[in-house]
């Protein structure tokens, strides 16, 4: 039944972050994740119907208005700002995108290493891209992709998963931690990646799942109170994962995953699939670096 599951409208998010849905006109809060007290210090009932500056302050609201006026946010989330920590809490990265006439705000702990800077990631991606441009064959290129992504993320296993004409998949390249069994050359049936998931990967460049066994929290209310529609969460980094996918990962001993598409001529050629044996954070700079590598891989592959 996986092909009939509405994975783009789960009505829930991963509990390590919080989400707000805003009316575009005045940025008043229409929907909230039920865990706002934990992350934002206010109960859902205190936030519904309120202006967003109640959470992000006047300067944050001004920044959001500027982005909505100047940036095309329908294509996916953009980093807006980092919300300073409340007493006893942590700094939160805030990303925003638009869909169905609303703005969606996602809040996640920065997870940043205090010793790392944005410039470090820029230099690492720059070096990685230069090496990708030198590959002499498709297989060598894909192997380099796995090596570069693993070098940036530090994850246990990174694979390039290539789709065949009948849509079944093959582990075409792999970079893995010493001691792990190789999955290189293994083939998996087409229905392991259901059609709804394939369609989503044609529209997004990265899918983080830092804790596959972690709890999910629902949106309140479940439907937009003004349109009656369920929120399309295609572009939400926090989008709740299908229980079928999380069980699939558990069966392989995988606790966290990070996935990027490889596109060719508008179609899904394959995936960059990353696995880790323990839950792990994916800070925004790491995700941005991996997104860029997925773009380059897609452009260079052809």
Furnish the topology, listing elements before pairings.
Layout: E1 12-14, E2 17-23, E3 29-33, H1 36-40, H2 44-47, H3 53-70, E4 78-83, E5 92-99, E6 102-109, H4 118-132, H5 138-153, E7 157-163, E8 169-176, E9 187-188, H6 195-201, E10 207-209, E11 216-220, H7 243-251, E12 256-264, E13 267-276, H8 284-301
Antiparallel strand pairs: 1-11, 2-3, 2-6, 3-11, 4-5, 5-6, 7-8, 7-13, 8-9, 10-12, 12-13
Structure report:
The structure is a single chain. Helices cover 30% and strands 27% of the residues. It has eight helices and 13 strands. Helix 4 (118-132) packs antiparallel against helix 5 (138-153) and helix 5 (138-153) runs antiparallel to helix 8. The radius of gyration is 19 Å and the shape is globular.
Considering the chains and any ligands shown, give keywords for the structure.
single chain; 302 residues; alpha+beta; 7-stranded antiparallel beta sheet; 8 helices; 30% helix; 27% strand
Main beta sheet: strand number and arrangement? 7 strands, antiparallel
β-sheet strand percentage: 25-35%
DSSP strand count: 13
> Mean of the pLDDT scores?
93
Query: Whole-number radius of gyration?
Result: 19 Å
Low-confidence spans: pLDDT under 50, at least 5 residues? none
Strand order of the largest sheet: 1-11-3-2-6-5-4
What is the H/E string?
EEEHHHEEEHHEEEHEEHEEH
State the end-to-end CA separation: 34 Å
- Structural class assignment: alpha+beta
Fraction of residues in helix: 25-40%
Q: Which descriptor suits the 3D outline?
A: globular
How many DSSP helices?
Answer: 8
């Amino acid at each position: 039944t996986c092909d009939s599951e509405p994975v783009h409208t789960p009505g829930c998010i991963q509990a390590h972050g919080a989400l707000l849905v805003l009316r575009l006109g005045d940025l008043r809060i229409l929907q909230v994740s039920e865990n706002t007290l934990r992350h934002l210090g206010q109960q859902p009932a205190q936030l519904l119907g309120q202006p967003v500056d109640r959470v992000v302050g006047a300067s944050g609201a001004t920044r959001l208005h500027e982005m909505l006026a100047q940036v095309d946010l329908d294509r996916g989330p953009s980093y807006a700002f980092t919300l300073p920590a409340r007493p006893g809490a942590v700094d939160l990265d805030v990303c925003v995108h638009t869909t169905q006439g609303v703005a969606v705000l996602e809040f996640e702990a920065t997870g940043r290493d205090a010793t790392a800077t944005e410039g470090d990631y820029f230099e690492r991606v720059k070096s990685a891209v230069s090496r990708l441009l030198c590959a002499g064959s498709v297989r060598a290129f894909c192997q380099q992709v796995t090596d570069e992504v693993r070098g940036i993320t530090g994850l246990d296993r990174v694979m390039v998963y290539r789709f065949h004409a009948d849509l079944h998949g093959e582990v075409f390249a792999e970079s893995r931690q010493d001691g792990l069994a190789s999955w290189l050359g293994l083939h998996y049936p087409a229905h392991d990646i259901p059609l709804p998931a394939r369609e989503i990967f044609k529209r997004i460049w990265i899918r983080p799942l830092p804790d596959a066994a972690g709890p999910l929290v629902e949106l309140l209310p479940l439907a937009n109170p003004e349109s009656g529609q369920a929120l399309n969460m295609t572009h939400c980094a926090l989008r709740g994962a299908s229980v079928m996918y999380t069980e699939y990962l558990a069966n392989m001993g995988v606790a966290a995953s990070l996935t990027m598409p490889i596109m060719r001529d508008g179609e899904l050629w394959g995936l960059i699939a990353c696995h880790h044996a323990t839950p792990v954070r994916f800070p925004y700079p790491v995700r941005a670096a991996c997104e860029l590598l997925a773009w380059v891989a897609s452009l260079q592959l052809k």
